[in-house]
Automatic annotation (TrEMBL):
Record's keyword annotation contains Transcription: no
Protein name from the UniProt record: cysteine desulfurase
Keywords: Iron, Iron-sulfur, Metal-binding, Pyridoxal phosphate, Transferase
InterPro entries, alphabetized: Aminotrans_V_dom (IPR000192), Aminotrans_V_PyrdxlP_BS (IPR020578), Cysteine_dSase (IPR016454), PyrdxlP-dep_Trfase (IPR015424), PyrdxlP-dep_Trfase_major (IPR015421), PyrdxlP-dep_Trfase_small (IPR015422)
Organism: Litchfieldia luteola
């Protein structure tokens, strides 16, 4: 039985080109980039090239890119680092109720230090209200952290409009772009973003890699202390093979952007069309149109999410109930709770399918047919 992987929002397979680019830096080019000899200079050159490639992809300067161990560290460094460095200007932070836990838990930590956090609600499509956002801005607001695209339901926030509002305020704008990067166009200057988090393993790059963009002139304290790497903003010997792989994944994502976007949208529509043809009851959580092209979150009335996932896995289909960071958790999806309320049946009966590199239309159609069979069996 051929396995079908439809959980690319949790992690994605590494692109073969990325692997090929990394191998020399795990075998021959192994020097410490901080060393001044030949071996070190080789590694330093690779870092410089990677930093410039990533900066070019988002319209930034190379000096504004900090390499991290992934999206979680980038979120933590951006949110906590900026909040602590700017505390004399105020202690108010704005975020949303549907952020990734890397953002929410960073904010909870700051609350324990005396910061005040506003958690903006969302509507049933997973969007924040611009009017509510405007009314939440205060003179003592120092940071706004709103994700670009949601990792569970795919809703895209009005970052451009929010960026224009924050640009006229003292606050910094951070956006978690981990799920949106590679499928949504991002230019940090056009969107007026001050900080942006990205993870390598979501874009067919290596796990344990990522970066934080931080606008030149922004004040931030580090969360790691040691050497002077990354302009004293992130101590520790750089993961050269991983950074080379990350850079290559970013370049590939930019090159294939439009093609991927169209393909994933077609996958979503095919999956939904097959479910309709199979005549089962379901509804899409959030929007079918206008969200992240690769994420499809579906509510199947009368089913149980654990039973669905087990049966899908037995059938060779890998999907999830939401964020991989909460796998095994008995807590309901905080995203669906924010969208539909704590008593909604959707919370216990929704599955996220997410598409990516290696998927075919045949796989998507076969997965949808098998999903319909499982739903019929479980709702008898």
């Amino acid at each position: 039985m051929d396995k079908i992987y439809l959980d690319h929002a949790a992690t994605s397979p590494m692109h073969p080109d990325v692997v090929d680019k990394m191998i020399p830096y795990m075998t021959k080019i192994f020097g410490n980039p901080s060393s001044i000899h030949h071996f070190g200079r080789q590694s330093r050159h690779a870092l410089d090239e990677a930093r410039q490639s990533i900066a070019d992809a988002i319209g930034a300067k190379a000096s504004e890119v900090i390499f991290t161990s992934g999206g979680t560290e980038a979120d933590n460094l951006g949110i906590i680092g900026v909040a602590l460095a700017n505390r004399e200007k105020g202690n108010h932070i704005i975020t949303t109720a549907i952020e990734h836990h890397a953002v929410l838990h960073s904010c909870k930590y700051l609350e324990s230090l005396g910061f005040e956090i506003t958690y903006l609600p969302v509507n049933e499509e997973g969007h924040v209200s611009l009017d509510e956002f405007k009314s939440s801005l205060r003179p003592n607001t120092i940071l706004v952290s709103i994700m670009l695209g949601n990792n569970e339901v795919g809703s895209i926030q009005p970052i451009s409009e929010i960026g224009s509002l924050v640009a006229e305020h003292q606050a910094y704008l951070h956006t978690d772009a981990v799920q949106a990067f590679g499928v949504v166009p991002i230019n940090v200057n056009e969107l007026k973003i001050d900080l942006l988090s990205v993870s390598g393993h979501k874009i067919n790059g290596p796990k344990g890699t990522g970066f934080l963009y931080i606008r030149e002139g922004s004040r931030m304290v580090p969360n790691l202390y040691g050497g002077e790497q990354e302009r004293k903003r992130r101590a520790g010997t750089e993961n050269v093979p991983g950074i080379v792989g990350l850079s290559n994944a970013v370049v590939l994502a930019a090159e294939n952007f439009e093609k991927k976007k169209l393909e994933y949208v077609e996958f979503k529509y095919k999956f939904v069309d097959v479910l309709k043809q199979q005549d089962i009851e379901f509804s899409v959580n959030g929007q079918l149109d206008g969200g992240l092209p690769h994420i499809l979150n579906i509510y199947f009335p009368g089913t149980n999410v654990e039973s669905m996932l087990v049966n899908l896995d037995i059938a060779g289909i890998s999907a999830s109930s939401g964020s991989a960071c909460t796998a095994g958790s008995i807590d309901p999806s905080h995203v669906l709770v924010a969208m539909y309320g704590k008593t909604s049946e959707r919370i216990a009966s929704s599955i996220r399918f997410s598409f990516g590199y290696g998927n075919t239309m045949e796989q998507v159609e076969r997965a949808a047919v098998e999903t319909a069979r499982i739903v019929r069996r479980l709702t008898k």
